[in-house]
Design goal:
Elements (H helix, E strand, L loop, with lengths): L1 H24 L7 E6 L5 H22 L5 H10 L1 H14 L6 E10 L2 E3 L2 E3 L2 E10 L7 E6 L4 H6 L8 H9 L1
Parallel strand pairs: 1-5
Antiparallel strand pairs: 1-6, 2-5, 3-4
Length: 174
């Protein structure tokens, strides 16, 4: 019994150190280009519209950027396709009979601090494609367009979940 407890404590310590090291090693590259969709409000309706715009842009931006070699090429592709982005957003809003307006901006835009899966992403101004719906006062969605850290899901349409054997053992026994 004593050996089992010591073993589990050692596993817990190992897990704590390795998971914090992994979390701190996740860093968005400095030359990354982000995408952010900010809804009018946090109402169910406005959040649903945000989701539909997000889904449309994820798919189209993946197709647009999947072969970009670097951030300069990605930037040129985004800038050249801004009219298409605006049309895609407008088409979604028309289909949903959404009449609160929208803005699309490609440049350096503010991102609030975000904690996601144990990683803190610092607030700041980042190069990004920003879509603001209506008054833009709701909880936003954002991800990295280039390198395509979130757009891979748009092609696969699946969610990857990473598991830790050590964590599963700890959860099972504690």
């Amino acid at each position: 019994m004593k050996k089992t407890i010591i073993f589990l404590i050692m596993i817990a310590i190992f897990y704590i150190f390795t998971s914090s090291a992994l979390a701190s090693s996740i860093k968005i590259p400095d030359d990354a280009i982000r995408i952010r969709v900010v809804p009018n409000s946090n109402s169910d309706y406005d959040q649903a519209i945000k989701g539909k715009v997000k889904d449309e842009l994820e798919t189209s931006m993946y197709s647009l950027l999947k072969n970009a070699k670097d951030s300069n090429e990605a930037r040129r592709l985004i800038e050249a396709n801004l009219p298409n982005v605006k049309n895609e957003v407008q088409n979604v809003l028309n289909k949903e009979k959404y009449d609160k307006g929208y803005k699309v901006n490609f440049g350096y835009n503010y991102f609030p601090q975000k904690k996601y899966k144990g990683v803190t992403y610092e607030e700041g101004y980042y190069e990004s494609l920003l879509v603001t719906l209506g008054e833009g006062k709701g909880d936003n969605w954002w991800c990295v367009l280039f390198p395509p850290l979130c757009l891979i899901e748009a092609e696969e349409n699946t969610e990857t979940e990473y598991k830790s054997l050590v964590k599963e053992l700890i959860d099972k026994y504690f």
